[in-house]
Amino acid sequence: METALGIYTDGGCSGNPGPGGWAYVILLQTFQELKIIAQDKGGVTETTNNKMELTAVIEALRKLKTMDVPRQVTVYTDSQYVQKGISEWIKTWKKNSWKTSDKKPVKNQELWIELDTLAGDFTITWQWIKGHAGNKYNELCDQMTQEAIASIL
Predict the structure, then answer these.
(1) Per-residue pLDDT, 1
(2) Is residue 2 helix, strand or coil?
(3) 125 — phi, psi (to 5°)?
(4) What is the spatial distance between Cα 30 and Cα 3, in angstroms, rounded to a whole number?
(5) CATH number of the CATH domain containing 22
(6) Does residue 106 sit within a domain?
(7) Residue 79 within any structural domain of the chain
(8) Is 121 in the active site?
(9) Which residue range(s) make up the domain with 13?
(10) Which helix (H) or strand (E) is 58 found in, with range?
(11) Is 11 a known active-site residue?
(12) One of 10, 12, 20, 59 is an active-site residue; which one?
């Protein structure tokens, strides 16, 4: 079996907008074991839930770029905004000069552009997972996100 990479991410806010946090866990699966090879978290005093969800993925891909690991990865997110945004909606936004279907500017455009640029360095499968449903690594990211928020309150 080849090695496989997985990234779990989460972001959240205490109030929306409000103090927010993000977290990621990068996993490497070999034929012998599944192990965490990187993880991080951070907080922002005034932000939105969607910005934190995007930031979590951006920070994870930034870290991944610095690592000597395969360039094929599955990103697991409990945010349909992130999963659908990067795998479906972004194509239309770019065609429409970063305007939504109702001709309004795309929210968080600078984060979407950064995510799109970083994602171009990898072969990524974007996988939505249900949050708070007992997935070990999603729960770990949620816990880390809550710790990041608590550290700035």
Answers:
(1) 34
(2) coil
(3) -100, 125
(4) 5
(5) 3.30.420.10
(6) no
(7) yes
(8) no
(9) 4-84+123-152
(10) helix 49-65
(11) yes
(12) 10
- Active site annotation includes 68: no
Region of 123 (left: φ > 0; alpha: ψ -120 to 50; beta: rest) is: beta
Q: Catalytic pick from 6, 11, 116, 134?
A: 11
- In which residue are the tokens 């770990």 written? 140
Count of domains forming the chain: 1
Q: Is 53 a catalytic residue?
A: yes
Complete DSSP assignment for 65-121: HTS-S-SEEEEEES-HHHHHIIIIIHHHHHHTTSB-TTSPBPTTHHHHHHHHHHHTT
Catalytic status, residue 131: no
Q: Is the pTM of this model over 0.85?
A: yes
Contact 67, 46 (CB under 8 A): no
Q: 146 lies in a domain?
A: yes
> Which of 12, 42, 59, 142 is the catalytic position?
142
Asked, for residue 51, whether it belongs to a domain, the answer is yes
C-alpha closest to that of 61 among 136, 111, 3: 111
In tens, the pLDDT along 39-91 reads: 999 999 999 999 999 999 999 999 999 999 989 999 999 999 999 999 999 99
